[in-house]
Amino acid sequence: MKxxxxxxxxxxLSKAVDAFKQNEITDIEKKKxxxxxxxxxxxxxxxxxxxxxxxxxLPPPRREIKPITKTLNLLTVTITDDGEALLKDLKxxxxxxxxxxxxxxxxxxxxxxxxxxAERFKTESKSTKVGHGDSRYVATADKRDTYLKDKKCVKCGxxxxxxxxxxxxxxxxxxxTRENLKILCRNCNQRDRIxxxx
Length: 198
Hints:
- There is one protein chain.
- By secondary structure, this protein is mainly α.
- Among the domains are: 10-54; 109-198, DNA Binding (I), subunit A (Orthogonal Bundle).
- The chain is built from 7 helices and 2 strands, in the order ααααααββα.
- It has helices spanning 10-22, 28-37, 43-54, 81-93, 101-121, 140-150, 186-197, and strands at residues 162-166, 181-185.
- The chain has a two-stranded antiparallel ribbon with strand order 1-2.
- 14% of the residues are buried.
């Protein structure tokens, strides 16, 4: 009743229970007396009063320590009405999975990444036809296998604006074959071309 009408906060009650355990207070009347004395108190005053009444400092608050396994980043986005409608439809389609907001976006980003990789680097292609290197054209199987082997720029490790590059420059007689292809980011690929011309 005292909690419901605001005379006793749950935090202060929790501190009192900790004090009872630490001091092995089992007498009901003594417990009632102590609880009565911490009504309508701030947490700091409650702690001081409990120390005075029991003669012992309270143990530090009990906290479940969980290892931090990842950093959470806050993402704020502005979307159009059409985007909001799409998001609502996606939530509806995935409602059976009961995903949290962050897991929902993780799934959306994963599916989008897979689709774009499949379109850009033919990662889902079953083609086995390899290039013979006589033109700049990169055969589907070579594009897929080179991307799946590297998945990031072989020079700087970036995953931004990835492109196919030649280890031995095409302009200097290098072939467009799987053995001569590598994944580079746009910046490294441009620097490669400039360096090769010097």
